[in-house]
Amino acid sequence: VFQRLYCSIADNCDCDFKANIRDLEWDLFKNVFGQHLAQEVVSEEVSRFLQNKSPDRPLVLSFHGSSGTGKTLISSMVANHLYGSAMSSPYIHQFIPTLHFPSAQHVPHYREELKKWVQGNLTQCARSVFIFDEMEKMPLGLIDVLEPLLGPSYVVFSTNYRKAIYIFISTTGEEVINKVTLENRQSGGEREDINLLELEDGIALEVYNSNTSGFFHSTIVHQKLITRFVPFLPLSRCHVARCTHLQLLQRGVFNRRDVVDAVAAEMIYSPVQGRFFSTTGCKAVPAKINLHL
Ligand SMILES: Nc1ncnc2c1ncn2[C@@H]1O[C@H](COP(=O)(O)OP(=O)(O)OP(=O)(O)O)[C@@H](O)[C@H]1O
After folding, report:
1. Which of 43, 210, 47 is CA-nearest to residue 138?
2. Which of 61, 111, 127, 150 has a 20 to 30 Å separation from 214 between CA atoms?
3. CB 40 within 8 A of CB 148
4. pTM above 0.90?
5. Where does the record place it (predicted)?
6. pLDDT (0 to 100) of residue 158
7. Which of 238, 282, 288 to mutate to test the pocket of ligand 1 (most atoms within 8 A of CB)?
8. Are 97 and 131 in contact (CB under 8 A)?
């Protein structure tokens, strides 16, 4: 009874929503390496969105960058710090095109199912989180079915669609991001000087014009329903070393500078001239650690 009474005046206890912005910010700051832009944009947008008790539209973030740079890591951190039961929460929904939408022939059917699924879940919990991984493999024309749900003022049968969070993840735009980061490095600039606006515009263009982006000629992009395009920069050797160090600590292994150095040395770096960035980010770190322990 008390729970129901509280929920009638409070706004977010209809599901196990326990947002902890400070913990999210701390986690981003402490455990994500080399991604100052993503850290900044994600913590800023998530906290602004959650502080607004009646947002006029959902929060829609689109993560872009090469493999192993931390896109999935940050999306899990967001989910972990919004829900007490973390990624196993029934209010966090993850879609993987190759698994959930494998056949381009069934797009009309997938469209119906996806919209029904999202609406049904928002009726259960207005603060639901929807994560769409591997957007570059999303069949064309599918994601646009969500367009009405992502815009302002979409209310059906009193369900509030405006409190949801959508995260789209893809490698689309990696060329733009990697080029800008390389130029910055070659000119001896600080990584922190990389211009966010320039990158966001470049990614938006690429996402809209690339027929492998999942958002090819999408009304979602055209109508500017994506709150922010979030760039993930390619990782350098020092970031690989930090990933290795952290993962060793998480395994309870201390003082193994030899393993940190060996793992960082074994990664493949590009371009050939300069060898600045790990081609697989930190993705291969756990497998390499296993070889050295
Ligand atoms: N910037 C980073 N800081 C700390 N750890 C990282 C970072 N990037 C990647 N990692 C680690 O590397 C592994 C792979 O990262 P993640 O799955 O987030 O990559 P991704 O960008 O989603 O790649 P993909 O596009 O291939 O899915 C994870 O174990 C993650 O913890």
Report:
1. 210
2. 127
3. no
4. yes
5. Endoplasmic reticulum lumen
6. 55
7. 282
8. no
